[in-house]
């Protein structure tokens, strides 16, 4: 590979590293604390915040337009100018020279339009931060605390599933399986490091590190994977919509009206919901479905999320097992022309007319991307063997004291600085190259861990420190080989060529054996051990790239581009 191509490769990985590292830097160093709190709140809290802020700004504008309409728009709401410009262009009006309060408001048709623009700005600001947080490197329970949830197994639901009173062993087995499923749902990449343990005979304690979105955790805990397909009774739906309008206080508990005679036996009435701009379910209308399940979610083998090619809306595609495919084919054949409702946890999420029989693959719309991904994950990890009820939910502080964290971080910084200084003193200019490679190594490690939304704990940091030592060791081996070649009287280019060539397998052997050990440890270990192993494995790959590929490129750049014929690598060599 020639130097230009190697340079492009390094630039490419640097660009990728910056792309994945940006959310972490932006979240931890450039986001005000009050906005972090809002982004970690529920969608209802975000909606309240956006509406309150929009109302305040609208009141300010109303006062300004009365008292001083020719003043410039306040800086904090200057974003309105962009929307006003778009409206001026749309209405083919002359653009004003100065954007005063009056000219900006002239660009809107009503106060309601101004309010919606203001609300949209505040909503998108926080929702974008919420999305950004999901791409960052999280801090573990020991460093920043997290969320603690206690769930209790519902004995009645287990009795219903077993069709008998569960024994102590039944409950123990159900809890063990539930813990495994919950761990797979929360820790899908094996790097989140949740702590899930049995607290009593029928309770599970779950501690999720970092600033966790409570709604998302609850969806994993409570999501039963109960996605069923039912046929809609259109005539009964019209009757029940009319009935609900005449009886606005009716709640339809368990899908039935309080007066059982209102709705025929074998039918259920559920709400049809759609997400609003905040991602909150909004009731649309009532839908009456046949109680008999056409196909239940147990026949779903795989669920994946793809974007619609025309609308870009997320579609969930379910692939059914052979038995489910046959059932669904017969079901859709018998009901061609009827409306099919997709019901998840007693909510109608989508409804569509069956135009032709369907066998193996079902495509469903009506979900937003995050919800569709969560649903696919819940379905992939199987239904919980027992229903769980949340009985306690609260935030927990860092398990390590602030003094211990500060001391640990101080030790890490001092270690890095000591290594940097030693390399420069001992290997002079070559030591500086090793330090550059080491910095790039750290950037690549953090970028890769951020891309997987990994949780950083003290043990993970230990993995990084160990990796720093290994990365330096690789450079030391290479530099010593180069020094040997220089002592034989070889030129700079020949010494570098021979040094890297002779050191290559020594460096590879040491790193590959450690990498194999790290892979086994990541597969067999749990919690902090797994985090340490994953960090170490990622670090080894990065250190090999920087020590062998990047360092060699810098040496060759000095030789061929800068025209250097000597290497600054030792006090005794010139």
From TrEMBL:
<feature type="domain" description="SecDF P1 head subdomain">
    <location>
        <begin position="284"/>
        <end position="386"/>
    </location>
</feature>
<feature type="domain" description="Protein export membrane protein SecD/SecF C-terminal">
    <location>
        <begin position="387"/>
        <end position="554"/>
    </location>
</feature>
<comment type="function">
    <text>Part of the Sec protein translocase complex. Interacts with the SecYEG preprotein conducting channel. SecDF uses the proton motive force (PMF) to complete protein translocation after the ATP-dependent function of SecA.</text>
</comment>
<dbReference type="Pfam" id="PF22599">
    <property type="entry name" value="SecDF_P1_head"/>
</dbReference>
<dbReference type="InterPro" id="IPR001036">
    <property type="entry name" value="Acrflvin-R"/>
</dbReference>
<dbReference type="GO" id="GO:0006605">
    <property type="term" value="P:protein targeting"/>
</dbReference>
<dbReference type="GO" id="GO:0005886">
    <property type="term" value="C:plasma membrane"/>
</dbReference>
<keyword id="KW-0811">Translocation</keyword>
<dbReference type="InterPro" id="IPR005791">
    <property type="entry name" value="SecD"/>
</dbReference>
<feature type="transmembrane region" description="Helical">
    <location>
        <begin position="531"/>
        <end position="555"/>
    </location>
</feature>
<comment type="similarity">
    <text>Belongs to the SecD/SecF family. SecD subfamily.</text>
</comment>
<comment type="subunit">
    <text>Forms a complex with SecF. Part of the essential Sec protein translocation apparatus which comprises SecA, SecYEG and auxiliary proteins SecDF. Other proteins may also be involved.</text>
</comment>
<feature type="transmembrane region" description="Helical">
    <location>
        <begin position="503"/>
        <end position="525"/>
    </location>
</feature>
<dbReference type="InterPro" id="IPR054384">
    <property type="entry name" value="SecDF_P1_head"/>
</dbReference>
<dbReference type="GO" id="GO:0043952">
    <property type="term" value="P:protein transport by the Sec complex"/>
</dbReference>
<dbReference type="InterPro" id="IPR022813">
    <property type="entry name" value="SecD/SecF_arch_bac"/>
</dbReference>
<dbReference type="InterPro" id="IPR055344">
    <property type="entry name" value="SecD_SecF_C_bact"/>
</dbReference>
<dbReference type="Pfam" id="PF02355">
    <property type="entry name" value="SecD_SecF_C"/>
</dbReference>
<protein>
    <recommendedName>
        <fullName>Protein translocase subunit SecD</fullName>
    </recommendedName>
</protein>
<keyword id="KW-0472">Membrane</keyword>
<feature type="domain" description="Protein translocase subunit SecDF P1">
    <location>
        <begin position="178"/>
        <end position="234"/>
    </location>
</feature>
<keyword id="KW-0813">Transport</keyword>
<feature type="transmembrane region" description="Helical">
    <location>
        <begin position="7"/>
        <end position="29"/>
    </location>
</feature>
<feature type="transmembrane region" description="Helical">
    <location>
        <begin position="407"/>
        <end position="427"/>
    </location>
</feature>
<keyword id="KW-0653">Protein transport</keyword>
<dbReference type="GO" id="GO:0065002">
    <property type="term" value="P:intracellular protein transmembrane transport"/>
</dbReference>
<dbReference type="GO" id="GO:0015450">
    <property type="term" value="F:protein-transporting ATPase activity"/>
</dbReference>
<dbReference type="InterPro" id="IPR048631">
    <property type="entry name" value="SecD_1st"/>
</dbReference>
<keyword id="KW-1133">Transmembrane helix</keyword>
<keyword id="KW-1003">Cell membrane</keyword>
<keyword id="KW-0812">Transmembrane</keyword>
<dbReference type="Pfam" id="PF21760">
    <property type="entry name" value="SecD_1st"/>
</dbReference>
<dbReference type="InterPro" id="IPR048634">
    <property type="entry name" value="SecD_SecF_C"/>
</dbReference>
<feature type="transmembrane region" description="Helical">
    <location>
        <begin position="432"/>
        <end position="452"/>
    </location>
</feature>
């Amino acid at each position: 590979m020639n130097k230009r191509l190697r340079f492009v490769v390094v630039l490419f990985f640097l660009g990728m590293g910056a792309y994945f590292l940006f959310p972490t830097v932006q979240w931890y160093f450039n986001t005000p604390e009050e906005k972090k709190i809002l982004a970690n709140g529920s969608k209802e809290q975000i909606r309240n915040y956006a509406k309150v802020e929009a109302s305040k700004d609208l009141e300010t504008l109303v006062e300004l337009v009365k008292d001083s309409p020719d003043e410039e728009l306040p800086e904090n709401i200057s974003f309105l100018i962009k929307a006003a410009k778009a409206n001026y262009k749309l209405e083919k009006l002359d653009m004003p020279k100065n954007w005063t309060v009056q000219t900006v408001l002239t660009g809107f048709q009503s106060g309601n339009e101004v309010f919606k623009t203001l609300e949209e700005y505040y909503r998108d600001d926080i929702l974008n931060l919420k999305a950004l947080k999901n791409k960052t490197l999280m801090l573990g329970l020991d460093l920043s605390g997290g969320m603690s949830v206690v769930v209790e197994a519902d004995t009645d639901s287990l009795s219903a599933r077993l069709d008998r009173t569960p024994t102590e062993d039944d409950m123990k087995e159900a809890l063990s399986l539930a813990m495994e499923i919950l761990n797979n749902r929360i820790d899908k990449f094996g790097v989140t490091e949740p702590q899930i343990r049995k607290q009593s005979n029928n309770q599970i304690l779950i501690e999720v590190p970092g600033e966790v979105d409570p709604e998302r955790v609850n969806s994993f805990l409570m999501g039963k994977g109960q996605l069923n397909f039912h046929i809609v009774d259109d005539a009964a739906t019209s009757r029940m919509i009319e009935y609900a309008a005449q009886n606005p206080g009716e709640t339809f508990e368990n899908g039935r009206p309080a007066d059982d005679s209102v709705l025929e036996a074998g039918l259920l009435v559920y709400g049809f919901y759609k997400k609003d701009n905040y991602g909150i379910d909004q009731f649309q209308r009532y839908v009456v479905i046949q109680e008999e399940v056409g196909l239940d979610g147990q026949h779903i083998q795989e669920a994946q999320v793809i974007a619609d090619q025309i609308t870009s809306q997320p579609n969930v595609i379910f692939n059914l097992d052979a038995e489910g495919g046959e059932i669904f084919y017969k079901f859709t054949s018998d009901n061609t022309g009827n409306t099919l409702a997709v019901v998840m946890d007693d909510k109608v999420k989508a409804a569509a007319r069956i135009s032709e029989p369907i066998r193996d693959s079902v495509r469903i719309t009506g979900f937003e991307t995050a919800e569709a991904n969560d649903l696919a994950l819940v379905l992939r990890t199987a239904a919980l063997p027992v229903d769980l009820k949340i009985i306690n939910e609260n935030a927990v502080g860092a398990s390590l004291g602030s003094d211990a964290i500060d001391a640990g971080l101080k030790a890490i910084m001092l270690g890095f600085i000591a290594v940097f200084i030693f390399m420069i003193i001992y290997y002079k200019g070559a030591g500086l190259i090793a330090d550059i490679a080491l910095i790039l190594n750290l950037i690549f490690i953090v970028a890769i861990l951020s891309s997987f939304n990994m949780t950083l704990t003290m043990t993970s940091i230990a993995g990084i420190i160990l990796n720093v030592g290994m990365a330096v060791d690789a450079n030391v081996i290479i530099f010593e080989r180069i020094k040997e070649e220089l002592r034989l009287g070889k030129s700079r280019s020949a010494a570098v060529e021979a040094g890297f060539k002779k050191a290559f397998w020594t460096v590879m052997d040491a790193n590959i054996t450690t990498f194999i050990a790290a892979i086994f440890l990541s597969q067999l270990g749990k919690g902090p051990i797994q985090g340490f192993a994953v960090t170490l494995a990622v670090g080894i790959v990065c250190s090999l790239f920087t020590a062998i590929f990047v360092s060699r490129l810098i040496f060759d750049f000095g030789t061929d581009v800068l025209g250097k014929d000597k290497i600054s690598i030792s006090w005794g060599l010139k």
